[in-house]
């Protein structure tokens, strides 16, 4: 896959955008500003930025509450996502969903489904629609290694396989299902091996290598667009933060976290940019700062936004047909 | 002492997606290790070391052997911290060489054996194919590999052990030896290592191969399709890709057939450095993108006959059988007909 220098710079910016955004959420949650639960994907930026790079208009991606970055990379307004997490009326769900349900349907981002598993069957509905419409669009489900043990995972892959749907299943294997290490969840090392049971291709790759993520998702998505059917991709990665903000992480050691921080996807990508003379240290610092300023702006927007009025309490509870009072 | 290096990551890369490569499940590697260990156990080999890995292949194999066959084999794990990448295979091979292993059994593809060869020195290798592109390792049943390894360990006088000296490709960047390959070094105009494997022929500019077989797959099969070269033939082949001479086609990955235009090809002697013509790009070694080079780098490739030594399983087992290594002489009643007695 040929990537232009502009592509590389954009991707670098996307990863910093995710990291700054997530770090800001961590800080705001610690200060007691953000309500509800927050689950962060710091360390998994390459999985999100690389996958979204290959998606286009009309493609669908359903992720989990750890993938705020997917929303950002799909072009959902950072202002609206931040406001949603603040619980403000300008949020993607008018402040009613928070981190667990932030979404951007117009951008094909089904949102951060807090129930880990159903997205793996829900995306098949979109994939089936794409197939029926012959529009060469795809539907992606992104979830964790723990969710890969749920029934919906197997159900979804079986259905997608039987109907040859343009569904791509992506496991962000960050080593832990909440607090349960991989070795106590599955007897296999590579979750991609499960693809064989459904007669579809399965690939395991280094999820902290942005280029590998782009190449692999690019091939799987191109295959699905051309009618080649579903694929399963396992990204081996790591979350730097706990399962949720405030998680004391007694189930892992500081040394383990430090080892994975050495495999920081952003630092690894910086090395490539320098090696190939795509950007200088100064350029990269500029992009870093630019993304930080963007997140500052999102925070200000959220802070300045109003709370939802009481009248919003009972709206959006039922679906109303347009122009009708039928619920 | 016998060493075993089983790569838990082989047989999993993007070629499952872009070609028809199958996932080589690690449980099958556990099965292969069991077959090897059973034979070593019955052959009386006591000193066995194995590389640790993320899947705990050794623990699983030992557990299944004890549970299902009531066989207890004493295998020790090499003591080092894993990085979970190819440096683990290099480290394990280096330790086994320092411990004077009589042979190293490897489970992996060309890439795994390349990593092992970086550390194994003169220790004979017994490569079993569990990878995707497998020119260097052979498809070999684990029990048979166990027999050959046992002979390597027991045949102190080296009467039976038949070894084949392999070639090696040295990669020089700005006059410094930066890496090696066993089968092929492929010059591409790719910019990145990424998912490592090669599957786009458009990016391939030059190929250096030690062995070119029409009956194999991978990039070396391109050369093998018009100028076969065996491992025994001295030197290597240089192939320049591009229009101008003729076009061939080959399976560059399992089930992935591509037409390839050839500009020129020539035999190259040992110990002669050939300057790479492509101005900048990436060098793929034994099927995996590894070495980055830029416009101002001087890149040279050299064939040598100083690669690893590999056990010729068939010749070794024939010689061992004739010498009576497998015969239980203590219960032989008719010594006249008993080989080796």
Question: Any descriptors?
Answer:
heterodimer; A: 327 residues; alpha/beta; Rossmann fold; 6-stranded parallel β-sheet; two-stranded antiparallel ribbon; 10 helices; 8 strands; 12% strand; globular; B: 341 residues; alpha+beta; 6-stranded antiparallel β-sheet; 5-stranded parallel β-sheet; 8 helices; 17 strands
Give the helices and strands, then pairings:
The complex is a heterodimer of chains A (327) and B (341).
Chain A: H1 5-30, H2 45-53, E1 60-64, H3 68-73, H4 78-86, E2 109-113, H5 119-133, E3 139-144, H6 151-162, E4 167-173, E5 176-177, E6 180-181, E7 202-206, H7 210-225, E8 231-236, H8 254-261, H9 265-275, H10 281-304
Parallel strand pairs in A: 1-2, 1-3, 3-4, 4-8, 7-8
Antiparallel strand pairs in A: 5-6
Helix pairs in contact in A: 1-2, 1-9, 1-10, 2-7, 4-10, 5-6
Chain B: E1 2-6, H1 15-18, H2 26-42, E2 48-50, H3 57-69, E3 75-77, H4 86-98, E4 103-108, H5 110-120, E5 125-129, H6 142-154, E6 163-165, E7 168-173, E8 176-181, E9 184-188, E10 204-209, H7 220-224, E11 236-253, E12 256-268, E13 274-275, E14 281-285, E15 288-293, E16 299-304, E17 309-311, H8 313-323
Helix pairs in contact in B: 2-3, 2-6, 4-5, 6-8
